[in-house]
Amino acid sequence: MSTHTESDGAAEIDLADFIAGLPKCELHVHLEGTLSPELKLALAERNGIAIGQTTVAEVEATYQFDSLASFLAVYYPAMNVLVTADDFRDLAYAYLTKAASQGVRYVEMFFDPQAHTGRGVPFSTVIEGYRQAIVAARAELGISAELIMCFLRDLSAEFAMATLMESLAHKDWIIGVGLDSDERDNPPSKFAAVFARARQEGYLLTMHCDIDQVGSIENIRQALEDIGVDRIDHGTNIVESPALVDHVKRRGVGLTCCPVSNSFVTDDMKATEIVSLLRDGVRVTVNSDDPAYFGGYMTENYAALADHAGLAPADLLRLARNAFEVAWLTPRARDAYLADLEAYAAGFGLAS
Ligand code: ADE
Ligand code: ZN
Predict the structure, then answer these.
(1) How far apart are CA 330 and CA 140, in angstroms?
(2) For the chain, which domains are there?
(3) In angstroms, what is the span from residue 193 Cα to ligand 1's centroid?
(4) Between β-strands 12-14 and 3-5, what pairing exists: parallel, antiparallel or unpaired?
(5) According to the model, what pLDDT value does residue 5 have?
(6) 73-107 pLDDT, tens per residue?
(7) Model confidence, pTM
(8) Which of 186, 191, 290, 301 is the pocket-test mutation for ligand 1 (most atoms within 8 Å of CB)?
(9) Does the beta carbon of 262 sit less than 6 angstroms from any atom of ligand 1?
(10) Over pLDDT 90: what percentage of the chain?
(11) Contact 28, 236 (CB under 8 A)
């Protein structure tokens, strides 16, 4: 990776070093998308489940996707190896270990309860495992984490509502709700009542508006104007609508972008769109999405975007700052993370 000389010629910054040490905040990672081939094989053996593969190479050979739908067709069956609370704990702890090693200080993690309750695993088992991992990681790794419960949009609104009701017993461990899975023919409006109720229950709201979907702009409009989401996951098609760009700027709505994932499910990482939004003052952020499948955790996503778009350290700093700013943190925690980030930048001669 290249070095970057600041315009006053004062300092030459190695971008890889800068990215490695950058205090990071991740807002778009699916815990089930962090299931590595190694852990998948280990859990299959532990639970006596035949998955059809016995080596990492065989598992990786099944990773053939070029669209959201083809990715999801690989992603859901893999979850069958997750059965006990220990499995969910090990999954989340492995991700948190990796994230902490890459300088992630705070993360809001998606999980898909319906992908588990739908095959007979109790909601409480899923939450118990994730909760144990969060508590242990905070004490042992110094990384803080929250959970965002996603509804599967290709299933019914009734099932989503029932899941919302079931989640209330675990509300202390869930900070907000999201919407994921196959967007085609499953617009935000389908879940308007579920999201209205989630808001009433005190959850914060986010929603996937995946890349280059049929009706992307209308779905982004519904998410923003009709549902009133606090954040959007992906959402870079918004560049096609100046009015919606104005909307997110006015309300400070963040867009959680995932460059490496984009290049798997579409034909490019959408660096042009992400950087254009960044320069326009939209709070875009960098995230990993499903890192075990797309091969890039946070560092790799920052590096891929920086390489592709020729970003400077100040741009990377802005991206990291955006994430802490749109995270669902208390003001006190946010200020502390931002102070650490500014101290890091100052060490490279970058003023805030
Ligand atoms: N579930 C896991 N990853 C997803 C993505 N990128 N889009 C929609 N649903 C998902
Ligand atoms: Zn996602």
Answers:
(1) 22
(2) 14-39+85-346 (3.20.20.140)
(3) 22
(4) antiparallel
(5) 66
(6) 999 999 999 999 999 999 999 999 999 999 999 99
(7) 0.97
(8) 290
(9) no
(10) 94
(11) no
